[in-house]
Amino acid sequence: MIRRGVWLALLLLFGLGLAGPGRAQLAPEPKQVRPGVAGVCTDRHHAVIDEAYAEAARRVRLALARLSAGEPPPEFRRWFGDAPVKPVETRLRLILAALERGRPHDTACEQPRACQGTVAAYAMPATGALGFCARFFRMPDAGLDSRFGTVIHELSHLVADTEDFAYGPRRAEALARENPGLAVRNADNLQYFVESLGR
Question: Following DSSP, what letter does each residue of 12-31 receive, concatenated?
Fold first, then answer.
């Protein structure tokens, strides 16, 4: 029979995971990462991203109002050809809902491995994460390929089932003429439509 003092000592030893082949592993302390290093966003990064989110939400609301006003604006035909309005409207509503929720908790900034070449931002649909590269923070506030438009583009990948069938204004316009069904699902076409409506 094990004496009471020895029994308590064994319980403490095994309970704390200090002995035995199947002992529990204590989780390591989380690494402290300096802001701005290894993709961690600084307060300045967050401020710029949040401003782009707010402007994107305002512009998407404007686009939805224009679409529900009756005849689609001329910009619609430019970016979607003769596609029906409903699929575009549906995607914009999904994007607006995501904008209103705010940036994902898992947002990276200037991640060296992902931010190579001309990448401005990226989305990871499998995890719902977004990343913003140095180029994003140098983009203009308005016009085509703006910061708020880039947010719309990347969120469309996460919530609105879009792809990158064509990049850039000229190719996006050609896609609208040649294949309106794909233009409705092309992230740049959604982005450029909202951007081209103006303020």
Answer: HHHHTT-SSTTPPPPPPPPP
